[in-house]
Amino acid sequence: MMPRMIRFSAGAVLLVYLVFLAGCAATPVGVNKVSPRESYQGVYANPLNPGVLSDPSKFVLNRYDLLKQFEKEPEAAIAALHEKALHDDRGDILYTLAECSYLYGSQLIDSYQKKKQQLAPDYFLLSALYSSYFVQGERSKQLLSIFDPRASTAVDIYNFGLWQAFATGDTEGLVLKSAERKLPTGSISIALDTSQFPWEMEEFEKFLPANQYAVRGVYVRNRTAGIGLPLIAIRKNSGKRIAGGQAAAVTAILRVEGGLAALSAGTARAALEIYSTQDTSTVYTKDGTAVPLESDLTAPMAYMLEGSKLFDLGLMSFLGREPNKIPDGLYMTEPYRPGKVPVVFVHGTASNPVWWVEMFNTLRFDPLIREKYQFWYFVYSSNKIVVSSAAELQDALRNKVATLDPQQKDPALQQMVVVGHSQGGLLTKLTVVDTGENLVRALTGKDLEALEMPEESKARVRRLLVLKPLPFVKGVIFLSTPHRGSFQSKSWNRGLVRWLVKLPATMVKNSLEYYDYMTDDVKKLMGGTKTFFTSADGMSPGNPLLKALAEIPLAPGVRGHSIIAVKTDGDPKLGNDGVVEYSSAHLGGMASELIVHSDHSSQLNPLAIDEVRRILIESLTVSSLSN
C-alpha cells in the first residue's frame, strides 16, 4: 500500500520558512544593543548632527503620510506641511518644518546643479523663520518645557540657518542689508537695523560667520550660548593696518514680525539687527524678557592673528635685524570706549604682544571685565636700554590720553592699569614712580645740575632718568619682573648680546655719549671699555640703576601687585623661573603677591591669569567706577 501524500499550500510553506528563519536571524521588529554614546547620538540626532531628521519630526511627517514624500520630493512635502500648519495649531508642525527646511537646504548646497544651490539660502531662511515661530509659540497653545530638546535644537537651527540664509553673494562673507525675500512658502520684507551698532556699516569690508572657522593656538575658545549668528566683522584695509581692532565680535539676529499666515500672504516683516557683542550681551523681547546673544569672542582675534606681522616681533626684532618690523607704539585692541578703564599690556625682552593673547582671551570672556575694561598693548624694541623704552611708553600713554580725552571728561581713563611682564615690568614701574635724582646719582654719583655736560645732553638725561608718575595710572601688575636684575644677564651673556645686537647709529651715539660721566663702578660693570648699552646691560644684577629703582616706592594712590613665577622645587622664596629669582621679583609694599609654579612665561599660566582677573575686579571696588 502506497503511503499517503500530504499536500501543503504555498502560504503554509512560506509560514514554515519564516518560522525556520526566526530561529537563525533577527526579527523584523526588535532591538539592537548600543553603547551610551551611540544611544545619545540616536536620541538627539537632528539635521545639524548627524544630518538627519529627528524622531519627533519623523513622527509628524508620518502623521500626515508625508514621510516617504519628503525622502523623494522634499520641496513638495515642505509645501504640504506648511499648509497643514496654517490650519492645525499643533506646534510640533513648526518644529518639523524647521528641521525639514534646514535638511533640504543642506542637500541643495551639496547639489551639482547651480540652480539648486541658489535655492539653498531661501530654505535656510525658512528654517530660521519656522524655528522662531516654534520657540515663540506661534499657532500653538502648548508651552515648551525646558527639558524638551526641541527647544535648544530650534535655537541652534535658527542660529545656523541665519548663517546660510544670508550667504547670497558671489564673494566671501554674508550679505547683510535690507531686502525683499521671496520664499518657497511665502515672502518676507527684511529691514537692516543698525541702531544698536556702535559703528557705521561702511567701515567694514565684510562679515564672516565665526562658526565657519576652527580656532587654534589658544587653550579655550570663548563662546556664549544664546540666539543669533556670531560674526567676524572685518574693517576695511585691515590687512594694511597693524593696530588692534581690525576685527570686531558681532552678532546678528532676525527679529520677526508677523506669523505664519503673514508669511504666506507676503506681509511678514523682520528686522536684521546687528550688535557688537563686546558691548551687548542681551536683547529683550516686546514683553521685556531678556534673551542672551550667542557670541564668539575668540574667533575675531584669532582670525586677525592669522598671518599677522605681530609674530615677527621677537628675537629678530630684539637683535635689530627686522627691517620691516611693526613700528613701536601704543595700540588698541578695539575702538576707544568712554567709561571703560584701559588695561595696557607691556611685553618683555625678545617678545611680542602675541604672548598676551591667552590672558586677553580669558579676561575678555568675563562679562564684568568686558563691561568695565578695554585692552591696549605697547610695542617696543626690547634691545634698547630700559629707561629709553620706558620714556617711550610714558610719552605714548600721555599722548593717547590727551588725544582721546583732552578735557578729561572720562574718569575711566584716569584709572588706568598697566601690566608688565619681565622687562616690561620695569617699564611699567617707571610709569608710577617719582625718581627725583636717584637714578642720575646711581649712574654718575652726582646730581644732574652738577654734571658738566651740554644742556642738550642734560635734557635727554632728564627725560630718561628724572621721572614723575603718570597721574592717570592707578594700578600696576608685575609678572616675572627682574626688579633687581636677572641672573641670566651675566657679563659674558651681555658681551654676546652686544656682538649680536644691531642698534641704530643715533642710539649707539647717545649711549656712548654718557659713558664718561658714569662712576667707576658702573664703567667696571660695563667691562671697563667704552661701549654702547643694551637692555641686557640694564638687567644685570649689578646695575646700580636697577638697585636704585627697586628701592623707590610707588606713587601715593597707586596699587601694585606682584605675580612671581618659580619653577624649582623647595622653598619658593629661594627659587627662580629660569630667568629671574624670587628675590629679584619680590617688592615690598605691594597690595598683593602671588607665587605660581611656572617658567618665566608666567603670562600664559592659568593661575596667573586668574590672579590678574581678581586684581582687576578688586580695582573696581577701590575706584569710583564699580557702579
**Overall CATH class of the largest domain:** Alpha Beta
The CATH topology of the largest domain is what?
Rossmann fold
| Sequence of strands across the biggest β-sheet | 11-13-12-14-15-16-17
How many domains comprise the coordinates?
3
Assign the structural class, choosing from mainly alpha, mainly beta, alpha/beta, alpha+beta, or little secondary structure: alpha/beta
Residue-averaged pLDDT: 85
- Any idea what the shape is? elongated
Task: Supply Rg.
Answer: 34 Å
Relevant CATH superfamily of the largest domain: Alpha/Beta hydrolase fold, catalytic domain
Q: Major beta sheet, specifics?
A: 7 strands, mixed
Number of strands: 17
Low-confidence regions: 240-244, 314-324, 491-509
Question: Strand fraction band?
Answer: 15-25%
> Termini separation (Å)?
112 Å
Query: What's the tally of helices?
Result: 24
What is the CATH architecture term of the largest domain?
A: 3-Layer(aba) Sandwich
Share of residues in helices = 25-40%
Summarize, please:
This protein is α/β, with parallel strands linked by helices and 627 residues long.
Task: Please name the defining characteristics of this protein.
single chain; 627 residues; Rossmann fold; 3 domains; 7-stranded mixed beta sheet; 24 helices
